Amino acid sequence: MRPVNQILAAVALLALLGATAAPAQHPQTRQGFWIGFGFGGGSGHFTCNGCSDTTLTAGTGHIKMGGTVRPNLLIGGEVNAWSKSETGETLTMGNVSAIVQYYPAPANGFFLKGGLGYATVEDNSDVDGKFTGNGFGFIFGLGFDIRVARNFSLTPIANLYYGGIGELSQGGSSTSGLGWKQSVIEIGLDFMFH
Description:
The chain is mainly beta.
């Protein structure tokens, strides 16, 4: 079984087990400061002018924090990263975003998330050296807080984050006309403190 499939199976099992037991024990309340972090697996896709579309699977990680506006509305910031290393090359793609997290039914743990921000890429190769770039980014996601303690939830999540990078640079020189674009579809598990 591939690592991403194993992660998906584990997240689904946690969601099924927690969705029936946890809500009865700990109500879904949200107030004040919140922070969360997590990990998972994701499919990273990138394309550019003159290169083929490429999709790779690798590990992901993220951290987010912010404040509660209302019991069904959270605002904050989130940092997401995807990284793949093999044969002397490491490719890292990520986003830093301002986010809004909305719970359609406040007594329920299900939420939708969206945000805008800044996307980055770094390609570090033993052969070609280091290329970096940054540009506009956005994120969309969803998840389900499984309340396991008064102020703590296990949260299966799914995110899509995108970056319109454009040019990459190497040692101050730009790659004219490259048109780099990237996206990551991430499945993971958050540890949320409310």
